[in-house]
């Protein structure tokens, strides 16, 4: 009985060794692939699954797909980390499931009609084009699923001056933001407007990042930023701001860039979560000296400024912090 068990055990071990050799010889890719290869394969699997479940939503025509291919439009589906150029032979019934569409750097004057067929878009990049506010209001109002929108580097607004005495910036953005109340990131930099030109942004309750740099902002009151409870990043650099009242800002701000303006005295309000503050390239900055606790900056970890320490700032700090000069 013992001899039989030993023989049986030896046979089993031999079979296992043979099977292990075969498995290792035939399936090295499956078990020895680098992590990034496995990830890529997972994305491929997702694409295959996507192809299988494409439904009968409004499809793009072959002509529209050819246009996208010719202009090298990039798209990404759920699970893909980067957008890639659209393939000419892509299944038309799957396109509407794209979550990211890149139409940047195309010198577009109008947005294509087929844009509204992308009913599941989460991110849209239309930067570096020649778009107008009227065009945006016509097309973007139907993309209610958007979470990230980049409109930067479009000449939305133009300034006209008379004898260098009085200037006017036109036009004003038509009502659009109420249809995009799911936005979390909005880039309006390099579009040329003052606060009143951009319309009522107060509908964007979920916004946590707002870029308004390189514009003609002379005030921010129209934005009603103090109503944006989730806003943590605000870039107002390279504008025409001469004064700013911190009470106009979102109380939850963590990063605030006010560099390259014409700021002098800053009326203060508590910003308990503010970690980074950039004041470089302004006039001589001063803070309200008389207001101390609770009007402090307890979380401030980095501040950038030119020259001497801004007057009144030291009373806003309750601990040492690295200063960038």
UniProtKB/TrEMBL annotation:
Pfam families: LRR_8
Keywords annotated in UniProt: Signal
Domain of life: Bacteria
Signal peptide interval: 1-25
Entries under InterPro entries matching the protein: Leu-rich_rpt, LRR_dom_sf, LRRC69/RLP
Protein's name in the database: Leucine-rich repeat domain-containing protein
Organism, scientific name: Candidatus Thiomargarita nelsonii
């Amino acid at each position: 009985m013992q001899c039989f068990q030993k023989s049986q055990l030896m046979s089993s071990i031999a079979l296992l060794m043979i099977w292990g050799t075969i498995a290792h010889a035939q399936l090295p890719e499956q078990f020895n692939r680098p992590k990034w290869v496995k990830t890529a394969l997972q994305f491929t699997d997702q694409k295959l699954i996507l192809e299988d479940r494409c439904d009968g939503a409004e499809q793009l025509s072959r002509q529209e797909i050819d246009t996208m291919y010719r202009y090298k439009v990039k798209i990404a589906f759920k699970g893909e980390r980067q957008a890639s150029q659209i393939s000419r032979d892509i299944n038309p019934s799957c396109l509407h499931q794209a979550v990211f569409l890149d139409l940047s750097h195309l010198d577009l004057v109008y947005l294509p009609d087929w844009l509204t067929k992308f009913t599941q878009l989460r991110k849209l990049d239309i930067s570096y084009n020649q778009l107008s506010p009227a065009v945006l209001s016509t097309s973007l109002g139907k993309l209610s699923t958007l979470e990230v929108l980049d409109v930067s580097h479009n000449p939305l607004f133009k300034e006209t001056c008379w004898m260098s005495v009085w200037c006017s910036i036109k036009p004003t953005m038509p009502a659009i933001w109420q249809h995009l109340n799911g936005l979390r990131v909005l880039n309006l930099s390099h579009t040329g407007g003052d606060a009143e030109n951009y319309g009522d942004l107060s509908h964007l309750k979920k916004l946590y990042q707002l870029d308004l740099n390189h514009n003609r902002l002379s005030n921010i009151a129209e934005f009603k930023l103090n109503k944006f409870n989730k806003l943590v990043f605000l870039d107002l650099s390279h504008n025409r701001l001469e004064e700013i009242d911190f009470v106009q800002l979102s109380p939850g701000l963590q990063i605030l860039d006010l560099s390259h303006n014409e700021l002098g005295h800053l009326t203060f309000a508590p910003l308990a979560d503010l970690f980074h503050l950039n004041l470089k390239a302004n006039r001589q900055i001063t803070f309200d000296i008389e207001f101390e606790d609770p009007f402090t900056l307890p979380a401030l970890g980095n501040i950038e400024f030119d020259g001497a320490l801004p007057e009144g700032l030291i009373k806003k700090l309750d601990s040492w912090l690295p200063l960038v000069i």
